[in-house]
Amino acid sequence: MRRPYPPRRRIRRRRHHSGGWGRILRFLGVALLLCGLLLPFLPCGSSPPEEVAPAPSLFLPEDLSPLRRAMVENAAALTGKVGYFWGGKSVCLGWDSRWGVPALVTADGSDTTGTLVPFGLDCSGLVTWAAVNAAGDAGALSAIGNGVRDQYSRCTPVVWAEAQPGDLAFFPDLSHVGIVVGTTEAGTLEIIHCSRTLGGVVRSPDGAGTGFALIGRPAFYELYGET
């Protein structure tokens, strides 16, 4: 007589509950989104300002006023170091620790609006930061202006041939602004600007060829005791 086979034991498989990890990942996603949203509006750190290394190969006139020199040198020091960010502004003295950190683009009018992009400056933001650091005063924002059209309104028009280092250069439709470095050996006007298409802060040796057409002399210099 055959022995009956013993009943098979049912193997209970442990179910992996992914709900916990899902909640954690969702929480982290929301946290990152909130950090990116708030980053552009956070104030500069209270620690001593981190200096920005000076830019090489700047041949400015020896008799150039100290404020104009500082304006150009500060802007040029960010060349290749700070990327373009639609609506990016800064009044930090020295290096802004937020630069390069992913932030949410909140300003309207760009295909990057609503996306996370490394924080940086836009064209008028570069002008603002350079002026603030040239004056050593965050209040210089009210003198140089905020935004391309506001900055143009605070300038006296100057003919192209009379542009000086530290003057501002504008596109004819006031969609872009940069800072005049000076005349090159080829006779062109070099402009420092923060360009989206060129990837951030750059020096363009041929400002007219880049699209700049208008020159403005900021009242900023007169307001701070120079011309």
UniProtKB/TrEMBL annotation:
Domain NlpC/P60 residue range list: 65-227
Keywords (A to Z) from UniProt: Hydrolase, Protease, Thiol protease
Pfam families: NLPC_P60
PROSITE patterns for this protein: NLPC_P60
Keyword Manganese in record: no
Family: Belongs to the peptidase C40 family.
This protein's name: NlpC/P60 family protein
Origin species: Pseudoflavonifractor intestinihominis
